[in-house]
Amino acid sequence: MLQLYLLTRLSLWIMAHGARWLFPRGSDVREAAPLLAPFQQWDANHYLHIARDGYFPAGAGPWLGDWDNREAFFPGYPLLLRVVHVVVPDWTAAGLLISLVAGAVAVLALSRTARSYVPEDAAGHRTVLFFLLSPCAVFLAVGYTEALFLAFALPAWLAARRHQWAWACALTALATTVRVSGLFLAAAIAVLFVLTALQAGSGEGKRKRRRTAWRGVVWLVLPGLPPLAYSWYLHAHTGDWMAWKHAQERGWYREFHTPWEAWTNTWNAAFDGVHTTGYAAMFQAELAAMLVGVALVAVLLRHRRRPEAVYVALSLWALGTSYWYTSVPRATLLWWPLWIGLAAVSPRRPWFRTAYLCVSTPLAALVALAFFTGRWAG
Fold it and tell me: Which residue, of 178, 278, 298, 299, is most buried by count of CB atoms within 10 Å of its CB?
């Protein structure tokens, strides 16, 4: 698993190196961009600014007209970035190191999680292959939160499947410091806990087993504490308990709209010629990813995987009720039931893996190239 992981990291580094030479920002450029410049794009800059300057430097905040809405980003990753920067002086390199180590942890946890669903030796390898060559895999290798979130979330889910509720909720609490998606994971673990407790309460000796099963319910409160603490911190500085949500609304049009309004607005942005071709292509990818997510929830419900369906459905609801879809393709990285499901299907259809790789690999290369050259991706 780690060999495959490191080889795909090497591929992305080769692409980043080529991008800074072949696709400079101007037509008359005579020198390539700095070595790590391709990796410091978009949200990576927000995390750098938070880690370096804090959330409200020199009294700045959302009351300023040119505010960058940085409080929309949860503090787990910037805090870790600041800690690693003590050892690694370059901010971008520090972020890449976090993603490199966290991605390795996530890959190993994904492999073990896959084998808990599909009891085959090769199931973990297939899952990791599909995951690492997925269209938005570049975001696992840059200074974004996906790798770190999965490094907490996947072991948490694996612990929950083993009914190790204390470990599951503690790791989920760490995940909620990184992304709001940690709350979706907490909801899925709560559903799994309830189903497990109800199942334990049947048959002989059910009263004793029921008391034992419900004893761990107190751990379910743990994942909600970090977001509550962050909301308290923001309230102390802004007077707004939901400042992070309002920052998302101001900066990324994440105010509530009905699902059909969000679909219509995204469709218009993708096909009505309002935006440039690059943005239109990404809006088309948003629509495709949303359809994949809806199909995934339907499959999970059909196979009675209710906790997994809750996790993906909450993610879709959060992403699918904004003005238009943003970052849905990138969110597919967090839907591990998708990659495990693809790995489960592939042995029964020998052509499937070849077809997947032929479609996904060029898409992954295009998204990576778009990101490394400063274009909007994911």
Answer: 178
